[in-house]
Amino acid sequence: MTGAPHAPPARADGMDTGAHISGGTHMNCERCGNGTTTHQMSFFNTQMCCHACIEQERAHPKYAEARAAEKMALDAGDRNFNGIGLPNDLC
């Protein structure tokens, strides 16, 4: 079978669900250094993070701001947005 992999459905509000999680290859989380086989890019910066770090990120008060800034950048055609910066309390 050929063609692109099946993509998750888009949300009505245009926000990405954050469900694009890569997996299968062992790597170390770029934030905490722990080994992981699943990872996702941060919405605050370009780090590839493990599930635990992403969950901490989602609970952060600035998470909605980071998501909104990325959506604005994408809507403006910026496919290389580096994020709003990692808050000091997530380092």
Structure overview:
With about 90 residues, the chain is an alpha+beta fold. It starts with about 20 loop residues before the first strand and ends in a 16-residue tail after the last helix. The chain has one domain (about 25-90). The chain contains two helices and three strands. Helix content is about 25%, strand content about 20%. Strands 1-2-3 form a three-stranded antiparallel beta sheet.
Short structural description:
The protein is an alpha+beta fold.
Which stretches are poorly predicted, pLDDT < 50 over at least 5 residues?
Answer: 1-13
Describe the sheet with the most strands.
3 strands, antiparallel
3D shape:
globular
**Helix fraction by DSSP (H/I, runs of at least 4):** 10-25%
The assigned structural class equals: alpha+beta
Jot down its keywords.
91 residues; alpha+beta; 3-stranded antiparallel β-sheet; 3 strands; single chain
